[in-house]
Design brief:
It is a single chain. The chain has helices at 7-23, 28-32, 39-47, 66-79, 84-91, 94-101, 104-115, 227-262, 274-301, 308-332, 334-338, 344-354, 361-373; strands spanning 121-124, 140-144, 147-154, 165-171, 179-184, 191-193, 197-198, 204-205, 208-216, 220-222, 264-265, 268-269. It is α+β, with helices and mostly antiparallel strands. Strands 1-4-5-10 form a four-stranded mixed sheet, with helices on one face. A hairpin with a 2-residue loop joins strand 11 (264-265) and strand 12 (268-269). Helix 8 packs antiparallel against helix 9 (274-301) and helix 8 runs parallel beside helix 10. The structure holds flavin-adenine dinucleotide. Flavin-adenine dinucleotide binds at residues 122-126, 131-132, 156-158, 199, 353, 356-357, 360, 362-363, 366, 379. Flavin-adenine dinucleotide (FAD) is lined by residues 122-126, 131-132, 156-158, 199, 353, 356-357, 360, 362-363, 366, 379.
Length: 382
């Protein structure tokens, strides 16, 4: 067992860091407070080969590993936390499910512009009555001419405003076995957006309604029976979510460390107070432990999909560690940490959301406990 990065991984990580310092350092604070998707960053990253890092070369990707994509998130977030979302969208999100299960036509129509940084893809799983219990989803796909008719609605769909396509989980029939997915063009007749709302992070969302939306047969991604495969692909998204939690915790930690060295009170730098030194020691322990769990899940996946158990453990721990470290970093900066003049409070707000998004910490712990006891614990009443 070797806990060091390989020379190739170190070289890749350093090259992404140089890119980030050159192109993303300026404007990092403004980007964090802008609700719009940073399209300029997406195009720059496409040019740098940072979109589709772990996708197959024949699909237009770079043929790298999930670990490479994790390293890219870390390097980018250390300079510009908001830009790490672009690495997520171009590598870990529904783009991976599309690349994994899409047809040649899907890849030509949707994947190619995603990899050029021109578009984004959303995933619509959550519904008003189906959050953690996602398999309770009620959006239906019923036969309609040469395809299906979609009726239902989704909430909290990230990027849906400006997405080129929504990968929507839909019900072809009853039960978990009846769930599959379709690719919906948000400009299709029958797609409607509700009132705009903002998350605590500043990201905007709106309920998306599908009222008799016609989806041709060639835009069906996975038919009934596809749920397990979709969730297998979704574990990649969870890994990216874990990586961003850790990376933003680390970003806040680095700011707090510098602050503690420079800020003086009672005639001494803050770093000389033991009450704060122990905070830093605890932060460091959490960050290092989270990193080991994240790297285990990513490395073991190599070029495939990550293990559900290792991903659940990594995500639950990184989500918690990222938030706790960013929150402690804010405390170290005092009133300045609570102000929007530094990125620390942004890191706290973003990390808080990832404790809920992509499988909440509680739901992940349910899964981990099932592994511990080697049996399932049905959550449903009755
Ligand atoms: C920033 C952000 C981005 C998101 N992006 C997307 C997106 O792009 N696409 C999408 O489809 N969805 C997205 N979501 C939605 C997200 O997946 C859901 O919020 C999440 O699955 C939880 O569902 P819920 O909000 O309905 O909470 P609920 O399911 O109502 O849960 C409420 C609370 O109860 C806990 N809980 C529920 N059941 C159990 C149980 N059996 N055991 C223990 N605890 C339980 C939960 O952990 C939670 O703390 C996003 C959410 C956030 C915050």
């Amino acid at each position: 067992m070797d806990f060091r990065l390989t020379p190739e991984q170190t070289e890749f990580s350093d090259s992404v860091l140089r890119f980030a310092r050159r192109h993303l350092a300026d404007g990092a604070l403004q980007r964090a407070h802008a609700p719009e998707y940073p399209w300029d960053v997406a195009r720059l990253m496409a040019g740098q080969g940072l979109l589709g890092i772990a996708l197959r070369e024949e699909d237009g990707g770079q043929g790298g590993t999930l670990m490479d994509a994790v390293l890219a998130i870390e390097a980018v977030a250390s300079v510009c936390p908001r830009s790490a979302d672009v690495v997520q969208a171009g590598n870990f999100g529904p783009i991976r499910v599309l690349a994994e299960y899409g047809s040649a036509d899907h890849k030509a129509r949707f994947l190619a512009p995603l990899l050029r940084g021109e578009t984004v893809i959303s995933v619509g799983m959550t519904e008003p009555e189906a959050g953690s219990a996602v398999t309770d989803l009620q959006t239906t796909a019923t036969p309609d001419g040469d395809g299906v008719r979609i009726d239902g609605s989704k909430v909290f769909t990230s990027h849906a405003w400006y997405a080129d396509v929504i990968l929507a989980y839909v019900r072809f029939g009853p039960g978990v076995g009846g769930i599959g997915s379709v690719l919906i063009d948000p400009k299709s007749p029958g797609v409607r957006f509700g009132k705009r709302s903002s998350f605590m992070s500043g990201e905007e969302w709106a309920q998306v309604y599908f009222d008799g939306v016609h989806v041709p047969a060639d835009r069906i991604l996975l038919r009934e029976g596809g749920f397990k495969r979709q969730i297998a692909g979704f574990n990649v998204e969870r890994l990216g979510n874990a990586a961003r939690s850790l990376a933003l915790g680390r970003h806040a930690f680095a700011i707090a460390r510098e602050w503690a060295l420079q800020r003086r009170q009672f005639g001494r730098p803050l770093a000389e107070f033991q009450g704060l030194q122990w905070k830093f020691a605890e932060m460091k322990i959490k960050l290092d432990a989270a990193q080991l769990l994240l790297y285990r899940a990513a490395s073991n996946a190599d070029r495939g999909l990550p293990s559900p158990d290792e991903t659940a453990i990594a995500k639950a721990f990184c989500n918690q560690a990222g938030f706790e470290v960013a929150n402690e970093a804010l405390q170290v900066l005092g009133g300045t940490g609570y102000s929007q003049d530094t990125l620390v409070e942004y890191c706290v707000r973003r990390c808080r959301g990832w404790m809920i998004a992509g499988g909440s910490i509680e739901i992940l712990k349910n899964r981990i406990a099932e592994g511990v006891f080697g049996r399932s614990f049905p959550q449903r009443a009755g």
